Amino acid sequence: MLAVAILAAGKGTRMKSALPKVLQPLSGISLLERVLANCNQLEPQRRLVIVGHQATRVENALSHIHGLEFVLQDPQNGTGHAIQQIIPTLHDFQGELLVLNGDVPLLRSRTIERLVQAHRSNNSGVTFLTTRLSNPMGYGRVFANKQGFVEAIVEDKDCTEEQRTNTLTNSGIYCFDWKQLASVLPKLSTNNSQKEIYLTDTISLLKVAMHIEVNDPGEVLGINDRSQMAKCEEVLQQRLREHWMKEGVTFIDPSSCTLSENCIFGKDIVIEPQTHLRGNCQIADRCRIGPGTLLEDAELGTDVRIIYSVINGAKVGNNVVIGPYAHLRPKAVLQNNCRIGNFVEIKQSYVGEGSKVSHLSYIGDAELGKKVNVGAGTITANFDGTRKHLTVVGDYTKTGANSVLVAPIVLGSRVTVGAGSTLTKNVPDGSLALGRAKQLIKKGWSV
Ligand code: UD1
Ligand code: CA
Question: 7 alpha carbon to ligand 1 midpoint, in Å?
Answer without folding.
Answer: 8
